[in-house]
Every structure is written in C-alpha cells, then in structure tokens.
Automatic annotation (TrEMBL), chain A:
Residues 1-18 form the signal peptide. It comes from Sinomicrobium oceani. It comes from the Bacteria. This is Predicted Zn-dependent peptidase. GO terms for molecular function: metal ion binding.
Automatic annotation (TrEMBL), chain B:
Keywords: Hydrolase, Metalloprotease, Protease, Signal, Zinc. Residues 36-175 form the Peptidase M16 N-terminal domain. GO terms for molecular function: metal ion binding; metallopeptidase activity. Residues 1-20 form the signal peptide. This is Predicted Zn-dependent peptidase. It comes from Sinomicrobium oceani. Pfam families: Peptidase_M16, Peptidase_M16_C. The keyword Isomerase does not apply. Belongs to the peptidase M16 family. GO terms for biological process: proteolysis.
Length: 688, 440
C-alpha cells in the first residue's frame, strides 16, 4: 500500500514537471482579441451622435466633443478657425471667466476647447457639473472684443516668431506644394490673413461651423448610460440643428515626375528634407495594414531603415522618419523627412530615394517583418490601456466607417500580413517616380550639388520656390566686386566702427550684457584687453554659472564648479576672440578667407571665414551683422549663430547693443548690452 | 442670470459623496510561501508580471552596504535557461518593456507585455527566482555598472547626495542611516560566496509577492503560476532585527558640501512614524497644503510673491519603519538660509496654531481624491500598489481603502499632527552648500 502511494506521488510529481519545459522560452499565445466593451450610443434630434463607453473601474469620466466637418478652406481670412478655438473656454454668457476657471480647479477637473470640439475630464462625482460647464462654455460662448484682441496679438506674435523658422517654413511649403496653396489642406495663415479677421468673422465662423450635424460626443468612464443620456439631452438640447456650409474642392494631384523643390532660406544652417507624394488610403482598405507595416519598416522609428541608414550608418542627421495617412474623405500624404547639415543635403536626398527604391523593389526580410509586427502590435496594445485611446477608436469606427470588429481583430490582421503584401503596398504608396522632394535650406550652399542628383538613371530636376510656395527663378550667386579682399572687408568694418587710430586707443573693454533664458535672468560680464586677455563671467539669477579665462597663453573654463583647461583648437579660438576688436588682428592672419556674398536679413554681406567662425559684414555699411560658429557636440555638428544689431556710439566707437543668439539647439536668446567701458583698471589677477 | 448659476452649482457639488472605487483582486499563497495577487482587468490586452522581494538596503550587513541594490543589477545577468545578455532582447522582441528598482525596504522587478506573452513573463520571473546565474563575471560587470550609476546619479549630479546626507544625520541606529547605493568599498571587498548567501537568504518565494495584473484568465494563470513557481524551494524563515531610535529633543545641525552646485539649499527634516501609521497620511496632507501647486502656502509666499526662494518643497519620505518629513528651500538672490528657515517656521507655525479653512479642506480632499484615482489608472501602477500594500503595509485592501484614511482626517488632526512632529527642537537642520573651491 505504502509503495503504491509512493508510486502515485512519483507519477503525479513527474506529470507536474512534464507539463512545462522551462529550458525553452515560452512562445507567445495567439494574438489576443481586444475587449473594448461595446459602446452604447444614441443620436439627438439636432444631429449630435453620442457614444458612451461605461467603465466603472475608476471613479472618473472624460468627455470628448468632436465636430467632424468636411474640410473647408478659410481663404483670405485664414486664421479665423484658430482664433475661434482660442476664444472658446473663457466662461460663457452665464458665468464669467474667473468663476469658470476657479470652479474647474476646485473640482480638480481639466477642460480644453478648440474650433472643432472640446475635451473635459475629472472625478465622476462631478460628472454632471463638468459636462454642464463644458456644454455651457462650448454652446454659449461670450465672445468679447478685448479677449479677441489678446488672442489675435498672440497669434500674430506666434507667426512673427516663426517667420525665420526653417522648419515652420518647410511644413507650410510642403503642404502647399503637395495639395495646392488654395486648397483646405494646403492653405496657410499669414499676418495679412489674420489681420483681415474681425470678431464678427469669428462669430460667423462659430455660427456656421460649430454645429451639431457632424458632431460626436464620446463619453468614457464611471457613468451610467441612462443617467448620462438624460444629462446630455438636457445640456445639449439647446444646440440648434444645423449643417455646415458645403463646398467642393478639386482633387489634388501628384507631381508628374520626380523633382526637387528647393525653398530658399538664406538663414538656414540645416536643410529640412521631405520626400512626399499623395496617397488615397482608407483604414478599411485591404492594404491598410500592409501599408502601415511598409512604413514602419521604412521609417517608423529607431529600428527602421531610414534611421539606421541616415543616422546610425551615415551620421547625416539626428533622426529620419516617414509617415503615411489614411482617411475616408480626403487625400493623405506619404512623407519621409529629416533635418540634415547643409553639406550633406544632396547625399541625404540620394539616401532617401535609395531607401524608397529598395523597399519598392525587394521584399522585406522575414525578420524585419517579424520585428515590425511585434513593435506595431506592442504599441497598439499598450496604448489601449488609456481610456482616451478607447474613445478615439470608438469615434474612428464611426467617422471612418470601419467594420464593427475592426479593432477587435486588429492584431490578427497585423499578424496575417505577408512580405508580398508589404511590397505591393510600398509600390502603390511610395511613389518614387512621382515624388516631390521639398528641400528647405540655404540655396547658396546646397543648390549646386542638388542639381547633380540622379534617380533611377535620370537627372532629378530642381525647381525653386520662395517661403510662401511661389515659384521663383534660381537664386543667382552674388559676385564679389573686383578688388574686394579679406583686407578690404575688414578695413571697411574697422573704418565703420571708428577707424584704426581710434580702436588702437582701446587698451581694454569691459561690457555688461543681460538676457533671459527660460524666464531666468542672465548677466554676462566680459573683459577683453588689447594684449589678448579675456575674462567672461556668466551668472544666472545672481549665481555664477560659468567663467572663461584666457591670459594670452593659457586658458580654462569653469562650468557648474568644474574646471576644464583649454587646449588645441579651443585655445586657438579663445586667442582669436580675446581682443576687444579681433578684426585688427585678423587682417594679418593668412588662413582667413573671403567666402563670398550672402544675404543676411535680405541684405548682402561679405562672409569671412576664420576656422570654425564665419563672420558677415554688411556690404553697404561695413558693419559686422552676423556670425556663425560651427562646433561638434557628441558627434553631431552644431551651429550657433549671433546676430548683431543696434550699433551705438560709445566714445566714438560703434558697438552692437543687441545680440540675438541661437544656441543651435532650438533656443533663441536676446542679449542686451547694458554698459560698455574702455580703459578701465583691471587687476591682472582677473586673468589668472 | 449670471448670479443664479454659480452658488447653486457650488452647493450641489460640495455635498456629493464620492463613488467608491473598487480594484478587484484575488490573493493566495503557494506551498513554498510565495504570495500571489491576481488582478484581472480585461479592458486592454496588457499584462504586467511583477515580483517584489522584501529586501532593501535596511536588511544589509553594515559592513556590506549596497547589496540589495547590487542585486537589482545582478539579477538581469541571466539564469540557467536565459543566456547572459538576452534578458532585454527577449523583452523587446516580444513587444514588451521591463525595469526594476530598489528602496530601503524592498526590491521590485516587472515586465509589461501584450497579454499573449503572460507565460513568457512568468517564465522570466520564475527563472530569476529559481536559478539566477551569479558568478564572478556578472559580479565584476555589475560592479562597474553600479559605480557608473553612482557617479552619474549621485557624485556628478547637483543635489544628488542630499538623501545620503540627510539620512546619515537623521538616523543613529537604524539602517536607514546608509544610502541605498551603499559603499563601493564594501562592494569591492565582497566575495562571490557572500552574494550567493544573500541570494539564498532573501531571494526566496517566502520573501516575495508575485503580482499578475491585467488581461488574464484566472484559472489558466493560476495553473501557469503553479507550474513555473511551484517547484521553487522554500527558503528559511527570515528573522529581522528591529531598531529603535531615541527621539530627537534638541535641534541637530549638519552641513554637507556638494561640488556640483552653485546655489545652496536648506533642508529641515523631522523624524516621523512608519508609513503605516495614520499620522503619516496626515503629514502627506500637510505637504500638499505647504507646497503642492501654485496656490500652496510656501510656494505662493516664498517663490511667487516675495521671491525669496527659487524652489521650495515639503514632502513626507515615509518608509516601513520610520519616515522623514522634509521641507527644503533654495534661496533666490541674497536671501540667507536663516531667513528661509524662519519663513518655513512661520508657515508651519500657522498650521500648528490655526485650523485650515473649510474651503482649503475641501480642495485638499478633492486633490487627494484625484490623486488616488489617477494612481490606479494604469495596470502597471496597480500592480506596484498591490505589491506594496501587501508587503510593506501588510494590508492589500488599502488599494481600495486608503482614500478612507485621507477622508477621515479632520482639520483638527492636521493641526495636532503638525504640533506633534514638526517642532523646531525635533529636527535636523542641514545646510547643503557648494563645496569651497581650493582655488579661491
């Protein structure tokens, strides 16, 4: 008997062991189905469609109102939609702005409004009040002239600050060229169009377009359908039934042949490249998933081909990506993009075209496809955790007319995609033969090489555009007049600021400069001597941040308490810039060269290069107006620029009192010189 | 019309009770002592597999500090069936994410996967518990990594050593007095045998909780857990020492020099009770009044209005055995540290002498309610909370009931707790200052 029990035990123990083989990594189970919960819906008589996803796990609720109107163009008053959006959410005709904001805060809720919808969320115990406040602010806005003025100024300021932005220009021109500048998707907002918008226009726009015909209200969270339905009906009943005006627009068309569209931005230190073509794809199409995976493999992230090629392999850029779109009613775009150094612009274009050629010629490898699927499925799944995602899917199912089980079977569909389907989709949507390669950059540096680019054995023609997508003639390179030399440019600069004799009286210069960076006060004190010594101290909010010292021979930098000795190239640069007026010395330096004439803010300037520094001297006035410093940070080339303005007379010498510095990392800083003094007593110890 | 709308609404919202929040879960023990908590939520096909071990820096030998954190690194080196260097690759190739962290009280490991990889997650964690590979190569590799981490996160980081400086001065007997990262000398001196012994002692099922949270099938999951974790042998019972501190009755002053900073900081720290005590919750609410948000008292006064401080903060660093209530400030311009202390004392004094207003109290309740709700908004967060409440608080139910503790706190409680713990003679005053440079 005993023996039997032992045997049974042995067997069961063995059986238990045999169920799993832990020496092997478990393989994934079948792709999970998505349990999104079945949304409950109802339609109101005024046209508003309501989708409710009850989720009682957490006592919170979110409301998303989306007005899915067909696209429309704003024409000569472009900007009216944006202004209408920013005028909403400032209380209502029933409750003033301050009380409205205070109550939202008190409830711990959050609320946002736009020209085609609104969003609110908070604890479900305040569910009805949050809905009521959101509906009230959205449906009964109090459009006030003073608020309108503020918002208009803000919008204009935003446009102005973007005027010289290469990336903003690139985005604008890329859409305008792809879709046509008078189309809903290609039109853009300018100072001129914003200035035409009046408060009356905002009211009209609101009246025409903020209507319930195409409106969806998605509610997710801890609410009961029965109750919320009553509340929605109560608070949205007053929204009068109306449809937006209908307009028809011509369907946009692709370029007839592959071409480079060069947008000239003389101030660009980097080129923005976008390879684009139009595409008609709906989410419900059979090739939707193959197309998404093709894009994932081409440029969908840090593991994709464009990134591996242009960044990891060639080091042209910090990142290169691509994206496709899909929409039921409108044409979308395929777009692959990167910001690259001027010098490698043409090579980068060639690399982009090469990758498009490769993915439309050869099948992707089984492993690439595998990883792309895992990555794609993984992010889909992780995103599902957020209630916002679930709400978005419920809405897309309606607006994109998707099969009811679209998201439930999403992962299976991803899994089923084959390499052949990916190739077919790539060929259909990445149109190598009709690509528009929009390059926004400095034509003087990049045009010559771009004109040599070939693709599939043919030369790719280059066409030129201005910042607002108007075709222009190829910008002609400026010729330097006979007799102009490094010497003559520097001489006329010296003459313009006061003359050799005057400058030579300056034994030292002490200047104080102020600026702000991210809201914090910055103070810079610089001491330069004519025998080539310098001390620069930078303080932030009154505390010394960094210090640079050069005694004519050796130098060091202290940053955040850490001292670094300067050597090699850095030491040389310090030496050249130590003098109050480096140009006096540069006249005698052999390696300094005259690079040509370039436009700085629309005016011609001579470019003089000294190692990593290029300085620009205005042809007309002789003054130094701009300087570019090229350096390398973590293997990436970085350009810092300085613009010099507001020259003022100090004891007969002209000094720029305003310097606009761009750190090269997307941060711009305005520096104002407070005082400049000559021939002060400076203790020698300062330079030790 | 405008008049009528608002007061009525306020009245209604103020008296509405909150809907109770329920995170459902099931918990049980395996024969080997492994505690298991399952939280089923099929909303999204996401699964978190997490293991919390009840071992932190406070369990270390005073001559071998840094062991607990060192293990958090060592246990990614591989197992009998997972080759060295493969751990992260397996996770990524299966669409997942993973990480780990160590505190004074516990060490936590977790993976998040699409739910069809639940078995993979269980396999990986059971491999780690059953037979991690601990050898000289791994120890040497991770020794370098940990040193690099210390350089990056502490030695080179402005204000990176404030916790070290604070805890070594606030505690005399309790192991909370040494830093989690520990001593590099101790780690260098440690022999492979000692690492193996530490593993045998603490990395055992009876000292761990496994949480599986998300899109799961309860029965199938239980079976897989039995299969993968059942065969892991139980370890010896762990006997923990207790340490009792003598109360501070006279202000302690200390100074620490950080070579990475330019702007000094003043830190005041009060020794407070275990995070399990009700008073610890009241202290959380006091922090919120003092420094949470732009309308909070210290922020509004010192940063916004008087511009005496660049930054100010108050928080309760609550741990299993004790806590540290910390209020700190960084001066702006020429403000002296003494002035900042005086300002802080004034605001704390108000809390000790006056009741907060009814409206402030309601706002506070709403804030904690919101925080509580959002803390449980991700599966990953729920998994961590379940493990923590079970292991450190000894009460898994707190996932649903902790808010009741906050709700029960009265305005009088806030005043009493401030009076009980936040007195000037009960604290440490730490001047955290830039290192004096030898060049000057």
């Amino acid at each position: 008997m005993k023996k039997l029990i032992f045997t049974l035990l042995f067997i069961s123990a063995f059986a238990l062991q045999a169920q799993i083989d832990r020496s092997k990594q478990p393989s994934p189970g079948p792709a999970p189905e998505i349990h999104l919960g079945t949304p409950q819906t109802f339609d109101m008589n005024n046209g508003l469609k309501v989708i409710v996803v009850e989720n009682h796990k957490l006592p919170r609720v979110s409301y998303t109102l989306t007005i899915d109107n067909p696209l429309f163009a704003e024409g000569e008053k472009a900007g009216v939609s944006s202004l209408t959006g920013s005028m909403l959410g400032k209380g209502s005709v029933h409750i003033d702005k301050d009380s409205f904001n205070d109550e939202v805060d008190y409830m711990g809720a959050s609320m946002n409004f736009g020209h085609s919808g609104a969003y609110a969320s908070g604890l479900s115990k305040y569910a009805e009040r949050i809905l009521e406040l959101m509906a009230d602010a959205a449906l009964h806005p109090d459009f006030k002239e003073d608020e309108f003025g503020k918002e208009k100024d803000l919008l204009l300021e935003g446009l102005k600050s973007n005027e010289k932005s290469v990336s903003a220009t690139a985005k604008r021109v890329e859409s305008a060229l792809a879709y046509g500048k008078n189309s809903p998707q290609g039109e853009f907002v300018t100072e001129e169009t914003v200035n035409r918008v009046s408060l009356e226009d905002v009211k009209n726009f609101y009246g025409n377009y903020f209507v319930p015909e195409n409106a969806y209200l998605v509610i997710v969270g801890d609410v009961k359908f029965k109750d919320i339905r009553k509340q929605v009906e109560k608070h949205f009943k007053g929204w009068r039934k109306a449809a937006p005006p209908v307009a028809n627009y011509a369907k946009p068309s692709d370029a007839q042949y592959t071409q480079i569209n060069l947008v000239n931005m003389p101030n660009a230190v980097q080129s923005e490249i976008a390879v684009e073509n139009l595409m008609d794809l709906r989410m419900s199409d059979a090739d939707y998933f193959p197309a998404m995976l093709a894009n994932k493999i081409l440029g969908g992230g840090g593991e994709a081909r464009l990134f591996l090629n242009l960044r990891e392999d060639k080091g042209y850029t910090y990142g290169a990506y691509s994206r496709i779109g899909a929409d039921l009613r409108t044409t979308s775009r395929f777009r692959a993009w990167a910001s690259v150094r001027n010098e490698v612009t043409d090579s980068a274009v060639v690399a982009f075209l090469g990758e498009i050629d490769r993915i439309t010629t050869d099948k992707v490898s089984a492993q690439e496809l595998e990883v792309a699927k895992a990555d794609y499925a993984g992010s889909f799944v992780m995103a599902l955790e957020k209630p916002e995602t679930i709400a978005r899917y419920a809405l897309l199912t309606k607006t994109q007319k998707l099969p009811e089980n679209f998201y439930q079977t999403y992962l299976e569909k991803v899994e089923a995609v084959t390499a052949e389907q990916v190739l077919d989709a790539a060929r259909k949507f990445f149109k190598g033969n009709q690509a528009r390669i929009v390059v926004t950059g400095k034509a003087a540096d990049i045009a010559e090489n771009l004109e040599k680019v070939t693709f599939r054995g043919k030369k790719v023609p280059v066409r030129y555009y201005d910042k607002y997508a108007n075709p222009i003639e190829k910008p002609q390179e400026k010729r330097i007049a006979e007799g102009v030399t490094v010497q003559s440019v520097l001489d006329s600069y010296i003459a313009a600021v006061g003359g050799v004799a005057k400058l030579e009286t300056v034994k030292n210069m002490v200047s104080e400069t102020k600026g702000t960076i991210q809201g914090m006060q910055l103070d810079i004190i610089a001491k330069n001597t004519s025998d080539g010594k310098v001390l620069t101290e930078t303080a932030m909010m009154g505390n010394t941040m960094s210090k640079q010292v050069f005694n004519g021979k050796t130098g060091y930098v202290v940053q955040q308490g850490q001292r670094m000795e300067l050597e090699g190239e850095k030491l040389e640069q310090m030496k050249d810039n130590a003098y109050p007026f480096p140009e006096l010395e540069l006249r005698n330096k052999e390696t300094v060269t005259l690079k040509g004439i370039e436009e700085i803010d629309g005016k011609d300037a001579y470019a003089i290069q000294n190692g990593a520094y290029t300085s620009y001297y205005d042809v007309e006035s002789g003054l130094k107006v701009f300087q570019v410093f090229t350096t390398e940070v973590n293997g990436q080339s970085l350009k810092q620029t300085f613009k010099f303005e507001d020259y003022q007379d100090v004891e007969g010498i002209k000094i720029p009192f305003k310097t606009i510095m761009d750190t090269g990392m997307g941060m711009e800083m305005e520096l104002h010189t407070a005082t400049v003094k000559f021939n002060e007593e400076i203790p020698e110890a300062d330079f030790e | 019309m405008k008049q009528k709308f608002l007061p009525l609404a306020l009245l209604v919202t103020a008296i509405l009770p909150a809907t109770a929040q329920q995170v459902s879960y099931e918990e049980y023990d395996l024969d080997n002592g492994l505690h298991v908590i399952l939280h089923k939520d099929n909303t999204a096909p996401v699964i978190t597999t997490a293991v919390m071990y009840h071992v932190g820096s406070k369990d270390e030998d005073p001559e071998r500090t840094g062991f607990a954190h060192f293990f958090e690194h060592l246990l990614f080196e591989g197992t009998k069936n997972i080759e060295r260097g493969q751990w992260f690759k397996i996770v990524t190739a299966n669409g997942g994410q993973n990480n780990a962290n160590t505190t004074q009280d516990r060490t936590y490991y977790y993976e998040v996967f699409p739910s069809n990889n639940l078995e993979l997650g269980l396999w990986m964690e059971s491999e780690r518990m059953l037979h991690p590979v601990i050898n000289q190569t791994g120890v040497e590799t991770q020794n370098e990594v940990v040193k690099e981490e210390k350089r990056m996160r502490m030695d080179n980081q402005p204000y990176g050593q404030f916790a070290t400086a604070l805890f070594e001065n606030l505690f005399d007997k309790h192991p909370y007095r040494w830093p989690i990262i520990g001593s590099m000398q101790h780690l260098d001196a440690a022999k492979l045998d000692e690492f193996l012994a530490f593993n045998d002692k603490f990395y055992v099922p009876n000292n761990a909780v496994l949480v599986v949270a998300g899109d799961l099938d309860t029965e199938k999951t239980k079976k897989m857990i039995r299969d993968y974790f059942g065969p892991i042998p139980r370890g010896k019972d762990i006997v923990r020492e207790t340490f009792e501190e003598t109360p501070i009755t006279q202000v302690k002053k200390a100074r620490f020099e950080d070579p990475n900073i330019q702007i000094p900081a003043i830190l005041t720290a009060y020794r407070t009770p275990s995070m399990k005590e009700r008073d610890a919750y009241v202290l959380d609410m006091i922090s919120s009044i003092l420094s949470d948000g732009k309308s909070s008292r210290l922020y509004k006064k010192l940063v916004d209005e008087e511009k005496k401080a660049m930054e100010v903060g108050a928080f309760n660093y609550a741990l299993e055995d004790y806590g540290a209530y910390i209020i700190y400030a960084l001066p702006l311009g020429g403000t002296s540290l003494d002035v900042l202390v005086a300002e802080i004392d004034e605001e704390v004094g108000k809390l000790q002498n006056e009741l907060i207003s009814e409206r402030d109290y309601e706002k506070l309740q709403n804030k904690f309610e919101s925080q509580f709700v959002n803390a449980n908004s991700s599966i990953e967060g729920i998994a961590n909370s379940l493990a923590r409440y079970y292991m450190l608080y000894g009460d898994t139910k707190l996932i649903n009931e902790e808010i009741d503790i906050y709700r029960s706190v009265t305005r009088e409680d806030i005043r009493e707790v401030a009076r009980k713990y936040l007195n000037p003679n009960q604290r440490l005053l730490l001047e955290y200052v830039p290192e004096e440079s030898e060049n000057n």
